[in-house]
Amino acid sequence: MRMMKRSNHMLWIASCSALALAAPALAQEAPAAQTAPDVEYSQEIIVTAQNRAENVQDVPIAMDVVGAEAIRDAGVTDFPEIERIAPAVNVTQDANYTRVTVRGVGTNSNDEAQDQSIAINIDGEYLNRPNILNISLFDIDRVEVLRGPQGTLYGRNATGGAINFITRKPSTDKFGVNGTVTYGNYDLINIEGGVDVPFGFGGLRLSGIYTDRDGYFYHPNLNARSGTAHTVAGRASLRLEPADGLTIDVAGEYAEVDNIVPLFASVNLNAPGNGPGPGCALNGFVEIGPLTPGTQCIPKNTNFLSKVNRESYDGPVPGLGSNKQRSTAIRGRIQYDFGPATLTYSGGYRDTWQDADMSLPVTYQFLEFSNNTETQSHELRLNGGEAGGIQWQGGVFYYNEKLDNVRGLFNRVIGPNGSFINFFTRDTEATSWAGFAQVDVPLSDTLTAVGGIRYTSDKRTGRFGNYGFRFNSGPVAPTTPPPQILNFDTDNDKITWLAGLNYKPNTDTLIYAKVATGYKAGGFDSVGNYAPETNTAYEAG
Length: 541
What we know:
The protein is mainly beta. The chain has three helices and 32 strands.
């Protein structure tokens, strides 16, 4: 798997001559401490963090809510920039993969059979792959960042929290046009806008974004820059209100991303004072695999970053890499309020194609020949009750993800035409379904008890093909079947729950305490299966 192969590559470099340092860390100074955007709480802010519209002051969840104006003012146009406006969120860009943590909880892996620890949704469409998170974010109405386990309402892979993006919906009664044009350093050009076209029983909104920017990082040995950004995306949103109590939202979206990923820097570990020394005792190296014959070192606590100019540094010999993505998505939401309760369906389908070639120190390239992801998610939910009384909801959820990957680690100087150090295929499929329920029960005029439960069942299968070392193959994919094929499968289920008390002495104050559990699905790598992750959080606020 990708991270595993990469770790082997790191060990090889550590034992020979160079250490790869993550380019994003080299690329920019550590950001100053972030502060949350000022929020005027005298103005009612409506959120849907609990699958119902309510004032943010009445929601017993530690959360950040960022509106369209703050998003626009901060210049947020892609996922990594979210941390500008949400202090609890940290986004790390590992070449063409995006890692997300909320309050320090996240997943430090890009493996095909590994899931993320933060549930990310766009209008109810669930996103899981770290490469798909590179999609362009535009025409956003608000962002809700829910901190802590959200295992009851958001289910699997929400051990660290959930991030909800709510896009702008069409106006059904007013024609309107909006747009912004931004020019900045590194020749940044950002054009974003939309138009609302209402009609008799609904409205249509067409929106889009164009972004182009030169690279942040200059590489003197290549006389070139990396870290460029080029995005074109568009969305057509339709809202229909054909009958009283019935609302239908449908959106189709297409996005193209064509970037030069930030190049990695390297340090010569054979230079005096840089190596791990005997027994991995020097310069922050530590030994791993003590039961394996010999000594294996990893640069766990090294501090070579301080010696590298983060704006200008030599890049790997293979030169600039690239990351091209094409993503098509269809999302829908149908809501019918029939009085005693409201029935809601929300779901989405997404197909993403990616072609990424990454240069690695010193003479390596990670070449992708196929990286396709197809996902779909569906939720059917019934909400009932009213504010001040018993409020309840229950529903079912289904998710399916199919991955198709063909890639390898190539070295151009081994053999006349170059050789693949390894070459492998990774085909996986994950299926998840869940049933959930939550209820708020008033115990008095000021005190409410909250309880929720969710059952989740996960299945994942994998077919891993391994070609091994391919001498003098050239940078081309093999046409014969893999000589070694491993088949994996994993089957997990889990019950998650929450229990809490909400005390509201007046309309402006909410004091709450709760216990919530989270669950992250298990998986496998080329060694075997690993178990699910669970956590329990105690929160008061």
